[in-house]
Amino acid sequence: MGIGMQLPPNQTVLAAHPKMAFEKGGYRYSVETKAGQSTYTVTDGKDTLTLPIRYAFGVHIQTYVLEHDGQFFESLVSYYPTVGGLAITMGDERLQPHSLREAMGRPTGQQEITACFGCHSSNGTPGLTCEHCHTGAQAHMDALAHGQSGVLPKKLSALAAEDTSSFCGQCHRTWETVIRTRKWGELNVRFQPYRWANSKCFNGADARIRCTACHDPHRDLVREDASYDSKCLACHVSTKPCPVSKNNCVSCHMPKVELPGGHVTFTDHQIRIVKAGQPYPD
User: What is the pTM of this model?
Assistant: First the structure.
């Protein structure tokens, strides 16, 4: 979570893949890195548009925020580790560009781009600092540096499940945000607080079902299914037990969803009994 945005010359993914290419719909894309500087190029065979990559958003999957004619654009292609190269950016699969400018990327409004920088950086500084989540953390650290105790930042562990979901949802999308923007379909599997709140077992007052009950935001995401068994059993050992198994609970009850394009898979946080052939539940 600490590396939400990278600036040149510290764009490690681009440095590790100095020359990437992709083609779709009559447009050819290339991303090249030389001497710590990266460029994003799109051509239709007749005309070519090349822009510097100043902002690379994301930790593993990376999308580029470009500037053209005084406006920000989300690049139409992104880097995916599953293919080791470029492919269409998530959510843009249905776009059919009719010009080089449209093929370059999707224009973003001021509110959207402000939200992007707000979640992927701390006051424009690459990565997420303590202050990003803990208001007053910087003042506390400055005070300690001068031999003073300072005011302790508010502990987020005191938040109820509903409040924690809303807090994390500032970047990961809240239930209300998804409902208001009507983001239906498998793409909303990315928005964990929304999916979480749709679970029948979600209780906004129960600390056992807070985001932080399963995930430590100060550490890298744990990907082993079995590591979450104790979290599941914290609730279900005293309720109706699963008749199938007490191991790898999330492998069945939080299924993996592969998004259109096949380059990204998310764990669906809507806890449920999954049946074969059942459609994706919005």
Answer: 0.86
